Amino acid sequence: VGCGSDASSERMLYLRATVAYDGTDYHGFQVQADQRTVQGTLEDALAAVTQQRVRVIGAGRTDSGVHALGQVVSFRAHWRHSVHDLHRALNAVLPGDTVVWSLSEAGEGFHPRFSARSRCYRYTIWNHCVRNPLLRRTSHWVFEPLLVGAMEDAAGLLVGEHDFATFGSPPQGENTVRRVFRATWTRQGNELRLDIEANAFLYRMVRSIVGTLVQVGKGELSVAAFGELLAAADRSLAGPTAPANGLSLEAVHY
Amino acid sequence: VGCGSDASSERMLYLRATVAYDGTDYHGFQVQADQRTVQGTLEDALAAVTQQRVRVIGAGRTDSGVHALGQVVSFRAHWRHSVHDLHRALNAVLPGDTVVWSLSEAGEGFHPRFSARSRCYRYTIWNHCVRNPLLRRTSHWVFEPLLVGAMEDAAGLLVGEHDFATFGSPPQGENTVRRVFRATWTRQGNELRLDIEANAFLYRMVRSIVGTLVQVGKGELSVAAFGELLAAADRSLAGPTAPANGLSLEAVHY
User: Fold this and answer.
1) Cα nearest neighbour of B131 on chain A
2) Would you list the DSSP string of B105-160?
């Protein structure tokens, strides 16, 4: 087939990749015309390396500005070398803000979104009177002192199966019930991090939860009132949506 | 004097500021024609806020791409409001990659460079087979496994008063003897950090030391050979200079 390629030894591979990216300069994960997206960048890298138009499917469609350390994608491609070689070749052509963390063959039944049992997100707040220029791309600055104990108590109310309609809308009009496995705040110096894991998330759910938990932290909303907002299952009751830059998709579990 | 300013209550203040910046988009600290520099950016902010041309003096002239959490600068300015107001006004006009961490009045004898007793630098290495897009601005990627124990032993040889001519040149042909108070590596996950404190540093000294310590970590240079390089006081013997992006001026002590 030209260029010295040995068509006879090519195989159609079904692959699964864990992908990390700095979302700052992306217009989100999903391909959009005339916008730089993670999906488009991965598909361009695959085209450059494999000489094929390859469609990439992701576990979660992260918004514009949202980062990932553990996004999971799948794709099919003809490739006659090793998976390790493909991994190296992809990272050699991907831009500095994006990398394939790991690459392996996937079972035929695998689907990055539908096979996922849970997603883990982390939201990072820089909580200090002065902003931090070295964390500006990866954290949300809150200068007011925060009542972390109250934020922890309120986050605890999220755990379990609930109708989360207050904190987000479903992608396609489905139901708004989700199961949160954990939602915990940790403080390290002036950084506050929410780690939240759920079977799935509604659109902008983590950012809406964080914006409302920050209201609790500022003393503008009691823990009990936060519980009532959750129970009301009314989108109009949520606090502000926290900015995208603090959010990262940390892992997807299968 | 126009604009409602009350000249009678203006005072000439002598101020000391701790400054943090992401050095990625700077051509170093020191003013250069037609280049974006930290000093120039601070002076522009002071001009915008105080309506005066103010000269800023820094403790250390960090190179292009080098970061700071604890750079110290001083300047004199006429100001009729509080120091707190000046602090807030400066941070309001400074760009996102630069901030005044703290601001206070300085004693008349204070000089950011000459009064300094010691400087603390941190060098961060991302040590993993795959690069990390979220740390690409603030760490140097080394994909080979590193012998951290050997790097620690070699770093220990730096402590004390030595002629560091192997690892840098003096700013103005002075002597090359410096006193290193500590030089320790710590590992946190895949991040390796060298914290090094000295009374003063030669030009590019930390990056030259790190480049040579990485050779020790790769097993290309023994700890004993590292000690011989140091003792030789010969600039031509140093390993490669590690990239600027891993380096940060953490603090200056007075």
Assistant:
1) A99
2) E--TT--TTTT-SEEEEEEEEEESSS--GGGTTT-EEE-S---HHHHHHHHHTT-E
